[in-house]
């Protein structure tokens, strides 16, 4: 038996309404918004000023884009593997 004075349903409602007030969430939203705006500005700048790109430049950009995307995926999977309980470090989930 517990001696809690707050009903569990009140905790759930309170936690679900404050997720956007956390500092990390606000920082992530600001960073992502800045990156999106910067990308849009760069694309518009290239279209307005008609910066020429030859085929070799496009192939090099495509190649490095694919490589960096795959490296990012590997890093994400590694981090996910290291934080999941029971999967990382050779442990097996038990019920």
TrEMBL record:
<keyword id="KW-1133">Transmembrane helix</keyword>
<feature type="transmembrane region" description="Helical">
    <location>
        <begin position="29"/>
        <end position="48"/>
    </location>
</feature>
<keyword id="KW-0472">Membrane</keyword>
<feature type="transmembrane region" description="Helical">
    <location>
        <begin position="60"/>
        <end position="84"/>
    </location>
</feature>
<keyword id="KW-0812">Transmembrane</keyword>
<protein>
    <recommendedName>
        <fullName>THH1/TOM1/TOM3 domain-containing protein</fullName>
    </recommendedName>
</protein>
């Amino acid at each position: 038996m517990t001696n809690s004075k707050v009903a569990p349903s009140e905790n759930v409602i309170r936690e679900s309404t404050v997720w956007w007030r956390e500092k990390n969430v606000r920082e992530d939203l600001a960073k992502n918004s800045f990156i999106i705006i910067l990308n849009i500005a760069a694309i518009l700048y290239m279209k307005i000023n008609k910066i020429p790109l030859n085929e070799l430049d496009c192939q090099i950009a495509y190649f490095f884009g694919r490589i960096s995307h795959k490296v990012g995926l590997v890093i994400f999977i590694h981090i996910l593997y290291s934080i999941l309980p029971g999967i990382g470090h050779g442990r097996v989930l038990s019920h």
